[in-house]
């Protein structure tokens, strides 16, 4: 059985490709998910992706991870990064390690984007690498799981 990795995309990321491309790039969410599935095959990981504009849907998905064998989470909480205690608490409750990803460099933007409800719980934070950030996160996860399996 391949280790299961959950990828969560928060609100408005379904618009990637057409949403402020100067900030978020031209790659669509579908292309990002396809790249992650391909890389997952290469790294022998099962990748499950979900995008939602609804906080409760993401909270429910995280809660379900406690029972479905998910080993690691890669999450771009998008605007919920700066607002969602509920999503933070869900990740904290299931005690799964996660990587926080942002396409843009949130530190080069408005001051409110520097506040994250996730970064202090995250294993790693990747911000400003565009769509590549997700692949970097998946490679990091693969490396972590490999190290874990060897120890
Ligand atoms: C984002 C940054 C957030 O501040 C913003 O609300 C997003 C996307 C990013 O990927 O750069 O929707 O998480």
Mind sketching the topology for me?
Elements: E1 4-9, H1 21-24, H2 29-43, E2 46-51, H3 55-65, E3 70-76, H4 85-94, E4 98-102, E5 124-127, H5 132-150
Helix pairs in contact: 2-5, 3-4
Bound molecules: 1,3,4-trihydroxy-5-OXO-cyclohexanecarboxylic acid.
1,3,4-trihydroxy-5-OXO-cyclohexanecarboxylic acid binds at residues 12, 76, 78-79, 81, 102-104, 106, 113.
Describe the structure.
The chain has 151 residues and is an alpha/beta fold. It contains 5 helices and 5 strands. It has helices at residues 21-24, 29-43, 55-65, 85-94, 132-150; strands at 4-9, 46-51, 70-76, 98-102, 124-127. Strands 2-1-3-4-5 form a 5-stranded parallel sheet, covered by helices on one side. Helix 4 (85-94) links the parallel strand 3 (70-76) and strand 4 (98-102). Helix 2 runs parallel beside helix 5 and helix 3 (55-65) packs parallel to helix 4 (85-94). The protein binds 1,3,4-trihydroxy-5-OXO-cyclohexanecarboxylic acid.
What would a concise description of this structure say?
With 151 residues, the chain is α/β, with parallel strands linked by helices. The protein is built from five helices and five strands; from the N terminus they run E-H-H-E-H-E-H-E-E-H.
Low-confidence stretches: none
Strand content: 15-25%
Tell me the Rg in angstroms. Answer: 14 Å
Largest sheet: 5 strands, parallel
Total of helices = 5
H-E string: EHHEHEHEEH
Strand order of the largest sheet: 2-1-3-4-5
User: Outline, from the CA principal axes?
Assistant: globular
Distance between the termini: 19 Å
Average pLDDT for all residues: 97
Task: Enumerate the distinct ligands.
Answer: 1,3,4-trihydroxy-5-OXO-cyclohexanecarboxylic acid
Fraction of residues in H or I helices: 25-40%
Count the beta strands.
5
Q: Kindly name the structural category.
A: alpha/beta
């Amino acid at each position: 059985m391949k280790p299961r990795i959950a990828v969560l995309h928060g609100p408005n990321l379904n618009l990637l490709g057409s949403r402020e491309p100067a900030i978020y790039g031209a790659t669509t969410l579908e292309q990002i998910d396809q790249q992650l599935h391909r890389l997952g095959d290469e790294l022998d990981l099962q990748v499950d992706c979900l995008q939602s504009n609804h906080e409760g849907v993401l909270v429910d998905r995280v809660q379900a991870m406690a029972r479905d064998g998910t080993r690691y989470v890669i999450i771009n909480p998008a605007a919920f990064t700066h607002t969602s205690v509920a999503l933070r608490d869900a990740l904290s409750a299931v005690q799964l390690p996660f990587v926080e990803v942002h396409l843009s460099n949130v530190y080069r933007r408005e001051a409110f984007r520097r506040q994250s409800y996730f970064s202090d719980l995250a294993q790693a934070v990747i911000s400003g690498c565009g769509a590549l950030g997700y692949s970097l996160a998946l490679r990091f996860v693969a490396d972590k799981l490999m190290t874990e399996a060897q120890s």
